[in-house]
Design goal:
Blueprint: H1 12-27, H2 36-51, H3 57-73, H4 76-87, H5 89-100
Amino acid sequence: MLDIEADAPLSPADAAHTDRLLALARSHGVDPTDLDEAVHDAASQYASAAYNSTDEGDELHDEAGRQAAAINNSGLDRQVAYLVVQAGPEETERVIRHAAA
C-alpha cells in the first residue's frame, strides 16, 4: 500500500524549517486551502517516482490523492511539514510566498 508520508519522517532540521515556514505562512495570512494544490502535486510526484514501473499507476495516484486530501484537511501545520520533507524548505518557502501574493 502506498503511504506518501512513510519515507518522509520529519528530521530535527526539517522541524526547524517547518516552524520557521509556519510562522511565515501565518504572518502572511496563508490559508490552508492556498496550499492544497502544492500538497497534491507533491503527493503525485511521490507516487510517480516511487511506483513509476508498476502497472498500478492509476490506483497509486488515486491513493496518493486521497492521502494528500487527508493532509490538506489536517491543516497548515501538517501541510507545511509534508511540503518541507517532500519538496524541501526552499521550494516550500517559494510556495508559501506565492500563495501569500
